[in-house]
Amino acid sequence: MTYDISMTQAVPVQDAYIPRNAIDHMNPFFHKSHAHTHSHSHTHKEFLQTPVPRRPSVQIDASVRPSAPSPANSTLSTASTVVSYTTPPATPPLAQTPTKSIADAVAWCTARARIPTPDGSEYFLHIYENIKDKKEHLAFVFGDAIRSQSLDRVQWNETELDRVKRGAYTGRLRNTVSENEQAALEANTPSAYSTGATDEQQQSALTSAPLVRIHSECFTGEIGHSARCDCGEQLDEAIRLMKEAGSGVVVYLRQEGRGIGLGEKIKAYNLQDLGYDTVMANLMLNHGADERTYEVAQAILEDLGLNQIRLLTNNPDKIEQVEKDSQIKVVERVPMMPKSWEAIVQGTEADFVVREGAVQDKIVKGKELDKYLKVKVERMRHMISIPTTMA
What we know:
The protein is of the alpha/beta class. Helices cover about 30% and strands about 15% of the residues.
């Protein structure tokens, strides 16, 4: 199998799907090495090779260093505000239990906060640190049934205000709702500030595998309204489905450009304008076709107690990596059909309208998107049916 990547022949030869690992080894431009090859006269000092301890050391078990017990219902007063909340129980009401102890976790939650949305629904944004990189990864958690184990764990010498500040409480803080709405929340009845889920939906979330989307950040598609990809459309659709279900998790990984970073991704765009497809552009930049990893995603799902999930994806590689060396099982793959292709299949292409940047309408169409999607199907195994008019 050969590829002509000379500047005189811009468009590469198209062949069948090449496995992810094989692409890297076959690529003549792929010479990455983690070996320490440069030479110098000075000697490494031992302390320079000692890793700096990271935050997991503060996530300690209360049974090891007991702190004052928290009351079941607390009211905390400060100079500027009064908050009302319920401290989480020792064992949060999860349908599933985490597979690893917090001490062994790859990622842990440092804070969460309620995020209201324009349609009246809400979710809790969780911030995760990890031992793999220096980035903060995110989790959008819909519904009250799914909770972080590491966030709820009592920390050494912390006060009730400390727990409130990092989001380790149940219910809602008083100042965000009126007295009537607070009473409704305390009575476990729906209110204007609930997640939008009914009691039946919340109960179902406790016993069934929730919707999960493992999404890698895409500045160009989510913020820049790029028509080169459907990343922004996929994120909006995942959020819409989870709001509708009343439960779900979007694990948002900071892996721009399939792991190569925004700057390298922009260089790849220039190569695509010369005629190379998205896979070959990455290879020509001395990168793999897909450099994303999912250990942090596994750790986040385990921290949230989710061992069985319904995964929103078209990518079989993502399913394989999420299940690898873990007890997480993808019990159902929920496909994400591109909206423009769905319109072609349904015969409604003439009525298809793109409302750029609108809430829940960040849909894209165009020849560049079609080319990008076809490459993902033909060369990266993505499970999407190409419309017959494009085959």
